[in-house]
Write a structure and sequence with these properties.
Keywords: Membrane, Transmembrane, Transmembrane helix. This is Zinc ribbon domain-containing protein. This protein has about 375 residues and is of the alpha+beta class. The chain has 3 domains: about 1-70, no CATH class; about 80-245, no CATH class; about 255-380, Mog1/PsbP, alpha/beta/alpha sandwich (Protein Transport Mog1p, Chain A), CATH 3.40.1000. The chain contains 7 helices and 14 strands. Helix 3 packs parallel to helix 5 (about 180-245). It is rod-shaped.
Length: about 375
């Protein structure tokens, strides 16, 4: 193979290589032994100050020469603007489609989340609906209680004010439709939760007022019950007393005889007869009921030589006597002190004084008067 001294394309001197160091063109040709091949070997061009010349000394147009060569390898070609535009458009479309799909997926997730939250809030309202209605109805019934049944009637007004500030909420008032938008579902859910929170606070105030009213009712009921029991007891006591007084209109008596001072008296048989006194001058008889009637009889010597009149005057001076009567050998006197009535009858002779004293509270005057009538006249000397 022959090697050119100068590049046939650009005229650059060969430095001993097979390809031009400037343009890369091959610098080899078939050996000179083949005349036919030698005819195809280009004649080197020479450089001059005026440019490149051919073998005849004419300038060579290198740009034209370059056009005569085949185009560069495919990897050296550029991509056309149309192709770039199409690719860019496809990229933009892909980005837009991806964004729209992403937005739709996000929007559906948000809507699903709000639908679940809305349904949860409405379920909470539904769960509390029955209890709230029951508490409201109980409080409303209490608010209609008659004032006479309360110890403090002003509590009814407080309960009425609490009830009037709100009404129970119902789950049917909140609709979470699957076809509703995210914003609508959010509004419904938030409103349900807000109303439920408000209802809980309201019911706490209603229940507090209801408990106060119920406590006042219970207190008044206890009072009324106690008053009723007291009245029933008083009525029963009065009835028993009346019955007893009726039964005792004719008092049964038994005779008591005192041997020392020779006297006797008829004392009620149903009274408690105490033991005779130590000196034997008399004894005491007491009612076993709550009328507190006491009968005391005694005898004594007439050491001062008193008379019925002088003895009566002594009692008139010592007590505020409301009634007195003087007989041939006896007298009677009655007075009242500190709520206690005293009836006294004495038999006075020259040697002995015999007496009966009956005391009873003014509250038992009816029963006491009957005892006086049945007992006092029976005192007599033997």
């Amino acid at each position: 193979m022959a090697r050119y001294d100068f590049c046939p394309h650009c005229g650059t001197a060969n430095n001993g290589g097979d390809f031009c160091a400037n343009c890369g063109a091959p610098l080899t040709a078939p050996d000179a032994g083949s005349p036919q091949d030698m005819q195809t070997v280009p004649i080197p061009v020479l450089t001059t100050p005026q440019g490149y010349l051919d073998q005849d000394g004419r300038p060579i147009d290198l740009s034209q020469m370059a056009q005569d060569f085949p185009p560069d390898e495919p990897h050296r070609r550029g991509i056309s603007k149309k192709t770039i535009t199409v690719i860019a458009a496809l990229v933009v479309v892909l980005i837009v489609v991806s964004a729209v799909c992403g937005w739709m997926i996000w929007s559906n997730r948000q809507r699903g989340s709000q639908l679940a939250a809305c349904q949860s809030a409405v379920s909470s309202v539904k769960a509390s609906e029955s209890k709230a209605k029951s508490e409201y109805e109980t409080a409303e019934k209490l608010s209609k209680t008659s004032e006479e049944k309360l110890d403090d009637a002003s509590l009814l007004a407080d309960l009425a004010n609490a009830l009037g500030s709100q009404k129970p909420i119902a789950a049917d008032d909140y609709v979470c439709d699957a076809s509703d938008g995210t914003a609508r579902l959010r509004v419904v859910g938030e409103q349900a939760r807000k109303d439920l929170t408000s209802q809980k606070a309201w019911l706490r105030s209603v229940n507090k007022a209801s408990k106060l009213v119920q406590a006042s009712i219970d207190k008044q009921t206890a009072k009324d019950k106690a008053d009723k029991a007291a009245k029933a007891k008083a009525a029963k006591k009065s009835e028993e007393k009346t019955k007893k007084q009726s039964q005792n209109s004719t008092i049964e008596t038994s005779e008591y005889v005192n041997a020392r001072y020779s006297y006797s008296i008829q004392a009620p048989s149903d009274f408690v007869w105490s033991s005779e006194s130590d000196n034997g001058d008399g004894r005491q008889f007491s009612s076993d009921d709550d009328d507190d009637i006491t009968i005391t009889v005694w005898g004594s010597g007439n050491l001062d030589g008193g008379t019925p009149e002088s003895a009566m005057r002594q009692y008139l001076s010592d007590h505020d006597v409301t009634y007195h009567a003087l007989g041939d050998s006896s007298f009677v006197a009655t007075w009242q002190e500190d709520g206690t009535i005293t009836y006294l009858r004495e038999l006075v002779d020259d040697d002995i004084i015999r007496a009966v004293e009956i005391t009873y509270p003014s509250s038992s005057s009816d029963r006491g008067n009957k005892v006086v009538e049945a007992v006092a006249p029976t005192l007599k000397s033997l």
